[in-house]
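Pipeline run #58 for the internal structure catalog. This entry was flagged by the ingest filter as a single-chain record with no existing model, so it goes straight to prediction. Upstream metadata was stripped on purpose; only the residue string is passed forward. Reviewer on rotation: M.T. Logging verbosity set to normal.
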Amino acid sequence: MAMQPIRAEIPRPELRADIDALPPAQRLVDADRLHVYCARAGQIPGVLQEIGRLRELTFRAAGEGTGKPCDVDLFDSYYLHLFLWDAASQSVVGAYRLGLADEILAQRGRRGLYTYSLFKYPSQLLASLNPAIELGRSFVRAEYQRDFAPLMLLWRGIARFVEQRPQYAVLFGAVSISNSYAPASRRLMVDYLSIHCTENRLARAVTPRRPYRGTAPADAFSPPHTVSELIRLIGEIERGQKGMPVLLRQYLKLGGRLLGFSCDRKFADALDGLIMVDLRRIEPAILARYMGKAGTAAFRAHHEGLAMGVPRVLAR
């Protein structure tokens, strides 16, 4: 894929103007000089272009990316944008794209969801998950990746968003495995996740638009039985240069379940796993790390009397 030059940085006064115009209620999290905001595209024209520039810069460094000067697409125009702002340096640190699946489905149908461009799935599947939030296009810029705090703050922002709208109990989206991984590493990850981390009832309803057809000799390695073993094997194959993708590893810690894999030609042949996390099934002590004790108690209270954290189609 031919890579076009990255667009120029958006001037900081233009970014600052967008930030200053946001209502105080849209600032979800504060941590010293770092603040998490959530806004619609029309509220942050300059910030959105800077998010797109930084997405492309960050994804290319990981062996992914669209190849365009700025990674902004049609979905960005109607999705929400949750982003981390460094007030000291006047810069965007990282971001997530949030799609309210129930609203998008009602207004645009399945094709309005980004994941539907990678996977085919019936409306009934969405109905079983909704109200749900589709997450995607997440990044933390390179200068801040040495610290886990920026990603943690973005997740706290998502948790705060859910705390304010507790009907959204399911998160889903595409988590990518870069084409820069050795074929054997990708094969091992797909095999392990397909056996140990797949929600089979839902997965049967999902069809990848471009199925993964890896042919690496994964059988040359003893099949891993735990995530720790998988990470060790990936480290050996990648000669210590890579481990399991950070987001994938963290989603699994939250009980994430895979629904399928699809290759994305438009994103440097990244391998996308369709993953879902049901917040109602997370242990309260773990959820409280992101939502706080009071927020967790309120969220769980909202769902009392329901099927105790398990969507109807997932009930054992």
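catalog note: DSSP finds ten helices and ten strands in the chain.
catalog note: The two ends are 45 Å apart (CA to CA).
status: ready for reviewer M.T.
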